[in-house]
Amino acid sequence: MESKIFTRLLIFGAMNTAAFMFSQNTENDTITRGKAIDEVVVTGNANPKASIKTSTSISTLKMKDIENAAPRTTAEIFRTIPGIRSESSGGEGNSNITVRGVPVSAGGSRYLLIQEDGLPVMQFGDIAFGTQDQFTRFDSFVSRVEALRGGSASVFASNSPAGIINFITKTGEKEGGSVTQQMGLNYKNYRTDFDYGTRIAEGTYASVGGFYRIGDGPRKTGFNSNNGGQFRISLLKKFDRGSFRVYAKFLDDRTAAYMPMPVSVTGTDSDPKWSSLPSYNILTGALQTINLQHDRTLGNDGNIFNSDVSDGMHSISKTIGAEFNYDLGEGWKFEEKIRYAANNGQFIAPFPASVSKGSDFFTAANFTNFGSAVYAGTNTTVDMNAYYMKLALFNVKLNNFNNFVNDFNISKKWSNVKMNAGLYKSTQNINMSWMWNNYIQEVSDNNARLVDVKNASGAFITDQGLLNYGMKDWGNLKRDYNTKYDITAPHAQIEINATDKLTIDAGARYDIGKVTGYFSGATVTYTSRDMNGNGVIDIPEQMVGSNDNINVPVNYRYGIFGYSVGANYALNNKNAVFARVSQGGSASADRILFSGYNYTNNDDPALDAVKVNKVNQVEAGYKLRGAGYFLNTTLFYAGTKEANYEATTQRKTENKYQSLGVELDGYYRISKSFDVKAGLTYTHAAIKNALDPTIIGNMPRRTPKFMYSVNPNFNMDKLNVGFYLIGATKAFTQDNNKLIMPGYALVNPYVSYQVMKNLTVSVNANNVFNTIAVTEAEEGSITGGNGIIRARTLPGSSYSASVKFDF
After folding, report:
1. What beta strand segments (E) does 443-543 contain?
2. First-to-last CA distance in the chain?
3. pLDDT tens string 657-708
4. Cβ–Cβ under 8 Å, residues 507 and 488
5. Are 770 and 796 within 8 A, CB to CB?
């Protein structure tokens, strides 16, 4: 196996050698469509510079690139960036994102942070039911997106050792604006984006922007599942020696959360056939239904809590921030970034705890003293040949996810040396309440019906489909979190221009973390309560899940030492090579709570082993620039040690991982009107150690060996036509390496026409061939099962049209 890997790397090396030889007789030039690669980059660099002069891997997406790719969610923006795996099957949030084979062992993105204007949206990327993409929205107020992959992120951001994705917003320095109206052609989606920037006085600029949308989204939920928007404003003052900027954002948006769905899988683990059930299309269906829009549960404060299921992922963020930089003279500069965000909301979505055919589902094994089952609100007996689900309705109130971030930097530049030192300070609240219920629902993507069950005596053991107030099968799960994470991180970097061709940089960061607060709900408790107010204690009301109100204190500290050392050598003005060695880590936040550790004993070796997830990285690369082409090649290695606790499986893990591979990012202008951009990532990953010895040596779950994207683009006069081909090879659903998720290739075409100078009409498509692209699955094998796997797939074909007016 290792020899095959080495052979592939040799092939890639030969390709780059040939490219280097070809470049020696090519005139140097700056290409228009790929210009972003050679523009000055600010993310993950103490001294902003052209990317070919850095020892980092960084890509820039401009507005036109993103518009052509037609992302339906924030996470879909990242799917064309080499090295980044973005599982965007969950909707507008709750996406799993990782870099270069670093594992996705929990939801979200533990090792990569999303930033807005250089500061993180959330201090942790994998908070349960409160991931950072839930509080991030792309709109026309964004100027560009910079994506840094690799170890230099260890010294430029806390809890982001594998990479940074930075949304850089407009300041108003460029006069003008735009209004874009987008409409779904085969699904209900109406969205308006706007932005405008102008100079309002000498050296003073203002800009505003945002979006509003309403619709169903690409899956059928039976109601308006997308409803909300975002507004942003910025004011910039530039003066002789610096600038000051203040900005604000208000986000209030509701979107559907798509959980794993019932999928038919036949064949064998090694050669499975994934397909839709007769009653449920996995490309267009959703578990949400008009028959389950209201949920009543017992709040953790002891009061009845009512929810609207159509709220889905309801994200509210009120943000204000400022930036200040000043040239002190004699090579000294000062820079300050500060931001406060008040975040809250709700996450409510149905999750299939179990799925089977009626003849297997409605038995005494599942329902004690089972008598019969009818569709809720009717006397119609259920079809025993149809499929049914026990649903866990994830209902999580995001009470307080506020955060404060401040990054202070001072730098000094000599002739060949630049030093930077700074102090980063942040606080992140994680205050949420889990209030889950258990329902019975048929498997259908067309207004699925709830099911009521009677016992042998004819008495209902359910109430309008509700089986349990709480999640009895999973130990209740009435949880309260009220924790605060305080981070102080001094950091320093030095860059030395050793010669005209050689640049060396080094940096270090030390995160001092303090965690305080408490959580409750660790033990299973039940109470008797008249929940529906009918004056009778019905069977589901005899055991109502409740919070134990036993507060478990949390008070511990952690430290993360990160460093990165890199060098870049310019062979000539078109070729450069670089190398980097890094170490970093990401602190475990709420993911290790409820795992039974002593959270107030800093000397407890068991807690100490899981407080920090560590990543060591090595990378080396080659960058080529020429007239009408570029090629970036990076060989990488990453070793990861982490701990996790998964709520749906009640499973604790402590694993070590290793990944190595190569990342290619290229562009070639074939003619004046035709060019191609492409990216390819090869990853060989393995589990090196684990609590479960049977998985040691296996490939980490959901890790494909190859990921790729290809974008041919034809541009002539007023017409722009092209497509994105985005794909991945097969991967395993779980770490046991049995059941295979098949490889896939999605084709996303686009066409735009400039009707007049300031008016453009576009039509975009996603997954035009309705390819089944499975991104994750709960089961690790079909052996011994019933032919049903709970999995998430990317949505099927969706088409949209937009009209953009520039002014």
Report:
1. 451-455, 466-468, 478-497, 502-520, 525-527
2. 57
3. 999 999 999 999 999 999 999 999 999 999 999 989 999 999 999 999 999 9
4. no
5. yes
